[in-house]
């Protein structure tokens, strides 16, 4: 009883820190995904064309552009987190996200300023991409380090709880605007700006909240040792195997994640043929289901290890992705569409729920944030951010089903990595500081 009593203050400190860190992550991802949720409405304002597929392809291309700079953001904020603390890095990243959202909210349309409109939109996506590139590594590291060792998988799963929660929040804002506050015409004309104003305001609030976040014990202990003389990137070169594992385990997972979240909004609307509002309900429902799965799988990984869940994702994803997307493209039932997307989440959560903790457990403290962020950001830029654009390109060419096989193939390649890597729950570098 005495030990339990003594542990209570520490438990409360951890839970509060995880809550604040997670809420900041939610706001960052809300801002980032508001772009996708409202692309159907703002694309005509920035990309004039009589073909809606072309408009969406242009919007998806800029979405991918935001990912191109994520490796740079991962390096910048990873270095900041490894040298000056996780908290400072998280505060600066959310501030940059505020700037990106404000740019989108106030940028005039193509009809008003011509090519400057899509140029400013691209600038906003670059700013948001830099911010998000840093947010992932710093928040994954922070949540993993602040958690107690026996529940590290469970607590770190809240990174994707809030990541998905951010997208869900963007979808819910869309639902409210569609059904309660605005007409379709108003959304097309100016209503699409509202979610970006909301995101900027929430980012400011989050930056203030993060000022009081405690620094992690792992970082404090690492600071007591002699500071490394090399840069974070140069230090990362000492761990080529771990870097290669991050790239390999991320490729299939990130392609699946961005397919069943970001691209689904467009896929369900344009390929399955559902209305805007029905599409929004389907996506919102599937995201709620996905959100619930994250802590369940995270807690399961604390019991059985990380590797079994990754292998489950790889096997099921490689085998079932094509049948699920084929069936989804032909169904005319919203309920069946919802069930199919949820079915995809049953195996995709095997990756999303634990990928943050697996990456953090690969690296020692002094390069952990950089090690998590940079190879992850590079891989997401290649396989994740491009997924909607690749899918729309195949669709425009009249071979949309080619994307289904592409996705299954990338997942299979990651499966090879899952099968050969060590289980980081049992062989972890969390206790190492250099």
From TrEMBL:
Its main location: membrane. One of its GO terms (molecular function) is symporter activity. Pfam families: MFS_1, Sugar_tr. It comes from the Bacteria. The keyword Transcription regulation does not apply. Residues 17-426 form the Major facilitator superfamily (MFS) profile domain. Gene3D superfamilies: MFS general substrate transporter like domains (1.20.1250.20). Keywords: Cell membrane, Membrane, Symport, Transmembrane, Transmembrane helix, Transport. It is found in: Cell membrane. InterPro entries: H+-coupled_symporters (IPR051084), MFS (IPR011701), MFS_dom (IPR020846), MFS_sugar_transport-like (IPR005828), MFS_trans_sf (IPR036259), Sugar_transporter_CS (IPR005829). This is Alpha-ketoglutarate permease. It comes from Achromobacter veterisilvae. The gene is kgtP.
């Amino acid at each position: 009883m005495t030990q339990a009593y003594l542990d209570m203050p520490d438990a409360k400190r951890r839970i509060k820190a995880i809550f604040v860190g997670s809420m900041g992550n939610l706001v960052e991802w809300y801002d980032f995904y508001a772009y996708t949720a409202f692309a159907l409405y703002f694309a005509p304002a920035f990309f004039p064309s009589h073909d809606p597929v072309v408009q969406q392809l242009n919007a998806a291309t800029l979405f991918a552009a935001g990912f191109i700079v994520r490796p740079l953001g991962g390096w910048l904020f990873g270095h900041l987190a490894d040298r000056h603390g996780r908290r400072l890095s998280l505060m600066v990243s959310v501030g940059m996200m505020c700037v990106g959202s404000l740019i989108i909210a106030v940028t005039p349309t193509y009809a008003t300023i011509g090519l400057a409109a899509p140029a400013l939109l691209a600038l906003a996506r670059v700013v948001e991409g830099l911010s998000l590139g840093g947010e992932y590594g710093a928040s994954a590291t922070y949540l993993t380090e602040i958690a107690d060792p026996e529940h590290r998988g469970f607590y770190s799963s809240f990174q994707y709880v809030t990541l998905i929660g951010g997208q869900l929040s963007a979808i819910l804002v869309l639902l409210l605007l569609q059904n309660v506050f605005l007409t379709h015409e108003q959304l097309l004309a100016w209503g699409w700006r509202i979610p970006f104003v909301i995101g900027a305001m929430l980012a400011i609030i989050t930056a203030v909240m993060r000022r009081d976040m405690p620094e992690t014990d792992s970082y404090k202990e690492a600071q007591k040792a002699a500071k490394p003389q090399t840069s974070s990137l140069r230090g990362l070169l000492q761990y080529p195997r771990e870097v290669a594992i991050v790239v390999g385990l991320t490729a299939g997972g990130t392609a699946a994640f961005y397919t069943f979240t970001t691209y689904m909004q467009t896929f369900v609307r344009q390929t399955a043929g559902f209305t805007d509002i029905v599409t929004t309900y389907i996506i919102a429902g599937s995201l709620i289901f996905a959100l619930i799965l994250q802590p369940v799988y995270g807690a399961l990984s604390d019991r059985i290890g990380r590797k079994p869940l990754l292998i489950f994702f790889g096997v099921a994803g490689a085998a079932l992705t094509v049948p699920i997307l084929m069936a989804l493209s032909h169904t005319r039932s919203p309920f069946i569409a919802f069930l199919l997307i949820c079915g995809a989440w049953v195996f995709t959560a095997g990756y999303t729920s634990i990928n943050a903790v697996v990456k953090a457990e690969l690296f020692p403290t002094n390069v952990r944030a950089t090690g998590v962020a940079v190879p992850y950001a590079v891989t997401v830029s290649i396989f994740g951010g491009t997924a909607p654009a690749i899918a729309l390109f195949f669709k425009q060419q009249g071979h949309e089903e080619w994307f289904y096989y592409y996705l299954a193939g990338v997942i299979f390649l990651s499966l090879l990595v899952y099968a050969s890597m060590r289980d980081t729950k049992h062989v972890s570098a969390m206790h190492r500081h250099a």
